[in-house]
Amino acid sequence: MSPAESEVNFKIATTMSDKENQNLFAVITGDIAGSSRLQGEQRIKLLNNLKRSFGNVEKLLGKSVMAYPFEIFRGDSFQGVLKVPESALKASVIIRATIRSSFKTTLKNAFDARIAVGIGSISLFPDKSSGEGDGEAYRNSGPELDMMEKKNRLLVVKTPWEEVNRELNVECALLDVIISRWSIEQAEVLLMHFEGLTQQQIAENLNISQPGVRKRIEKANIDEIEMTLTRFEQLIHHKYNPVGL
Question: What's the domain range around 80?
Fold first, then answer.
């Protein structure tokens, strides 16, 4: 199979050409923190919301952002590949916002997603027979997820550039603090904000007042999140200008 054909069907594992190896991807690997507390129908509901979060990524960022679709494995673990690495942090925030809006619970017991983003080249995409991809982006993602629980972190990003990693380590830590304080209502407002809805439109959808929406936006620190996402995009774009995007 040629590199051109692999662009059409990423389900078939293929070794990419030298030119394709110069392109960067973002591998998002994650699992659900706290899912072991659920059984039966509640666990099914949580996994359905995880699937809904993947739909939200495609809805809010566009289907063309995906190089390889999100898949669930080992119960509640998941992985997907983005061909627009600048969008990886926003995709991670979308997934976490969707999961945090899944169940009515206290902030302390809220369900969340643990996510490791790896940015780099990819030499092999997975298929149903091999099951695993390979390349720098995969190696920057999967192993990081395995170490996150020990570090009590829910979001990390590893790139090929150490100076960028040092900055993102701080920014991801601050995002963790903000996201961990989201109520269900604040997570819902964030997703609607990402859709491009105005405060008045969000108010009408939620049947609350526009000042009520503004209050939720302020408490969710959405302006600060937008600034962080923009900074992330600038960092990645400065290091790598995607070909053909």
Answer: 3-182+220-239
Number of domains in the chain: 1
CATH number assigned to the domain comprising residue 109: 3.30.70.270
Q: What separation, in Å, do the N-terminal and C-terminal C-alpha atoms of the chain show?
A: 23
The answer to whether 71 and 11 are in contact (CB under 8 A) is no
Q: Measured between alpha carbons, how far is 12 from 14 in angstroms, rounded to an integer?
A: 6
Burial class (CB in 10 A: 0-12, 13-18, 19+), 203: buried
For 89, the 3-state DSSP assignment is helix
Higher per-residue confidence, 176 vs 127: 176
Q: Which parts of the chain fold into alpha helices (H)?
A: 3-8, 18-21, 40-61, 88-100, 136-139, 142-151, 162-179, 184-194, 199-206, 210-219, 222-239
In a domain, 100, yes or no: yes
Per-residue pLDDT tens over the stretch 47-84: 889 999 999 999 999 999 999 999 998 778 999 999 99
- For position 173, what pLDDT does the model report? 95
